[in-house]
Amino acid sequence: MSEHIRIKRGLDIPLTGEAQLYVAKRVGSGTIALRPSDFRGLKARAEVAEGARVVAGTPLFSDIRRPQVLFCSPACGQVTSVTLGPDGSLEEVRVAADASREHLSFDVGKPSSMERSAIIRLMLQGGLWPCIRQRPFGIIADPERMPNSIFVSAFSSVPVAPDYDFALAGHLEELQTGIDVLGRLTRGGIHLCLPVRNYAGSDFHKLKGVIQHSVYGPHPAGNVGVQINRISPINKGEVIWTVTLQHVAAIGRFFLNGWYDMRRLVAMTGPAALNPSYVECLPGLAMADIEDHFDHWQGNLRIISGDVLTGANVGREGFLRFYDDMVTVIQEGEGRESFGWAKPFRFNKFSFSHLYPAHLLGPHKFEMDTSVNGSVRAFVMGDIYSKVFPMDIYPVELFKAILAGDRDKMEKLGIYEVVEEDVALCEYVCPSKIEIQEIVSKGIDLMMEEE
Amino acid sequence: MKAGGIRRFMDNIRPHFEKGGKYYWLHSTYDAFDTFFSVPETLTSKGSHIRDCLDLKRLMIVVVVALLPCFVASCIHYGFFKVLPLYLVTYIVGLGIEFAFAQIRGKEVSEGFLVTGMIIPMIVPVTIPLWMLALAVAFAVIIGKEVFGGTGMNIWNPALLARAFLFFAYPSHMTGNVWVPGAADAVSGATPLAQIDGGLAGLTYSVADLFWGRIPGSVGEGCTFAILLGALILLATGAANYRVMFSCVLGALAVGGLANLAAPSPESVLAVPAWYHLLMGGFAFGAVFMATDPVTGAQTNAGKWIYGFLIGALAIVIRLFSPAYPEGMMIAILIMNTFAPLIDHCVVAANINRRLSRSKTV
């Protein structure tokens, strides 16, 4: 069953600012915010009022459509604000966290001796259910459904990706427990995709109860969507669940210790990050708490929760999103380069294409900023997308079907197999500067309306 | 970066072109020049926070650079001042219409015409009256491109439409005898393609003449060496797709080779060795610069192989079997432009079927 997957089409963007392998600090207290917008399509109802005292594991809000799905406070403290949006839906819950590790305790047993329904109930109550997302669409999994299988990617291939071997070093027991728990949720097995580059050196290949695959190639090789497309592509009506490795450890911790402990290492990265390294923190971390990592000398900065291709521009006042395990800091584009497009060399800029000769200098890394580097045009260079999109899907045809709003065509052309992160590289290389992630996002929304 | 003189000037006059300014109706023109002089200041707002530094301006300028060897060759062959008016007329008429359309639509001016305007003068005879050229350019830009919505939306290659327009509207200027340089007075000469009707024996040009472009024909199509240089630039930079180029040559050699086998006698046109066709007429130029147009060709990789192969094959079939048209490349590419969406449709349908059958077998 184990497969060796070789990804040929893709691109490792040579961005500077990879995190050094040390933990710079541990953020234990401070403001923490949880936002329903971290979860696709979620409409939430607040479960706490302003001023309430919460501990780790206290539900802060719940899903309106499936009230059993709870979103819990990762820390102990006091709710300082519950913000509603203009349409009356919940926008944000803020908690002033203190350093104490008070928590709600749950009665957990050995996962191997538990019923599937009991495990699901515990995970729902404990706030761990949102860790499981489903394909198609990348939404929180439906607890009523049986997935074909569960996919976990043991590495990340995004620009300046965090190193999971470092971030989860010494957490093997938690990971194994997490795998055992997930193993009770599906009959199709758990697919764990390891990178070839340190297949043997990684602790993760010691994990039992998984189907291991080795993956070789450039980004998006680490994306779970690409791995699914190669190993067990999704057809209409099928569902596959995905969990990030950090969340597998969190699930394992819950079943070992009996409480909601989301503490994890988050990589501080990017060309404008000072001392790129790791920070131990909780989801909802305030960017203000890690301000000493921003290189203010570089002028206007963009603080991104997540990676540079798919993350959210949260700003200095923002918070770490629920699924993110990295923060990327880059410079906002400034000034206007004269005749940029006509310069014969332009060695300081990276291009995937060979239309600029920077690739002749051999591999080296670039500081990149947020300039679009061009003007928006119609689709012209159709073949460039397929060079960075390693799925058996015709990207341009799919994008055009979405723009035309043709659900039947979208379905036939593979909308069930992609989410935004899978086409992020297409957007990066697009010479016509088309916002492809937004197109795919619109397509997914259209498909979800129908269901 | 310090703002240079041009930058300062553009920034100073900008308020007049913004909403409420007195020249707001010219804002497309302002934008065109503004982004011509310097990289636009737009920052990413959604999706990916960083973007590749490649844009369409760069793509187009590289194709223009790849066309320069052909331009130089035509200048050497015909004389700079014979060729220059063709370019001036083409660019003035074409860009004029492009700017006007962008202005009417309130959109930015697209870069597509940079390349089209470079190609059109190369595929007409140097003797063409300038008013005729202006008419053809206007036809190509308006009917060939703007009615579909501009660059990226057109079905047929605009440059070839210009040539097709001339070919059908003024046939006497486009085929048969053309101007030949070298003599004190302009003399007429037959193109190589017109000579091979009676087999290779009728050809008065050597292979070297064909390769170096010492033959009559359209302005930029003659010198195969210059075209090869251009092809090298296009392939090394990836500005054009190698699949189309190679399969086009393959298609031509396949049909030419079959014709050689089937030739009844050495005097027949069928007996002309297949590789001669690569050197004659507009084949090489068409294969390198026009079949590879990313907008009007097939979009899928498998489709590109089929599309290119059929262009090459069709061009030679027309050359060999159609007495009315000694040159088949133009018509072959236009026909395949028309069928490119059909080819893509079939390739994509195969992908859809693969996806459907996958769900049945599992």
3D structure, described in words:
The complex is a heterodimer of chains A (451) and B (362). Chain A has 451 residues and is α/β, with parallel strands linked by helices. Among the domains of chain A are: 4-10 and 124-257, Rossmann fold (3-Layer(aba) Sandwich), CATH 3.40.50; 29-97, Beta Barrel (OB fold (Dihydrolipoamide Acetyltransferase, E2P)), CATH 2.40.50; 372-450, no CATH class. Chain A is built from 10 helices and 20 strands. Chain A has helices spanning 116-126, 164-167, 172-183, 224-231, 245-257, 383-386, 395-403, 407-413, 420-429, 436-450, and strands at residues 4-6, 23-26, 30-34, 44-46, 53-54, 59-63, 70-72, 77-84, 90-97, 133-135, 139-140, 150-153, 190-195, 211-216, 240-242, 264-269, 277-281, 301-305, 312-313, 326-331. In chain A, helix 3 (172-183) packs across helix 5 and helix 9 runs antiparallel to helix 10. Chain A is globular. The mean pLDDT of chain A is 90. The radius of gyration of chain B is 23 Å and the shape is globular. Residues 176-188 of chain B have low confidence and may be disordered. The termini of chain B are far apart. In chain B, strands 1-2 form a two-stranded antiparallel sheet. Chain B has 2 domains: 12-38 and 54-174, no CATH class; 194-349, no CATH class. Chain B has 16 helices and 2 strands. Helices cover 62% and strands 2% of the residues of chain B. Chain B is mainly alpha-helical. The chains are: A alpha/beta (451), B mainly alpha (362). At the A-B interface, helix 9 and helix 10 of A face helix 2, helix 3 and helix 16 of B.
Element layout with pairings:
The complex is a heterodimer of chains A (about 450) and B (about 350).
Chain A: E1 4-6, E2 23-26, E3 30-34, E4 44-46, E5 53-54, E6 59-63, E7 70-72, E8 77-84, E9 90-97, H1 116-126, E10 133-135, E11 139-140, E12 150-153, H2 164-167, H3 172-183, E13 190-195, E14 211-216, H4 224-231, E15 240-242, H5 245-257, E16 264-269, E17 277-281, E18 301-305, E19 312-313, E20 326-331, H6 383-386, H7 395-403, H8 407-413, H9 420-429, H10 436-450
Parallel strand pairs in A: 1-14, 2-17, 12-13, 12-15, 13-14, 16-20
Antiparallel strand pairs in A: 3-9, 4-6, 5-8, 6-7, 8-9, 10-11, 10-15, 16-17, 18-19, 18-20
Helix pairs in contact in A: 3-5, 7-8, 9-10
Chain B: H1 5-17, H2 27-37, H3 56-78, H4 80-105, H5 112-119, H6 130-144, H7 158-169, H8 171-174, E1 178-180, E2 187-189, H9 192-195, H10 207-212, H11 224-237, H12 242-262, H13 276-279, H14 283-290, H15 301-321, H16 329-361
Antiparallel strand pairs in B: 1-2
Helix pairs in contact in B: 1-2, 3-4, 3-5, 3-11, 4-5, 4-6, 6-7, 7-16, 11-14, 12-15, 15-16
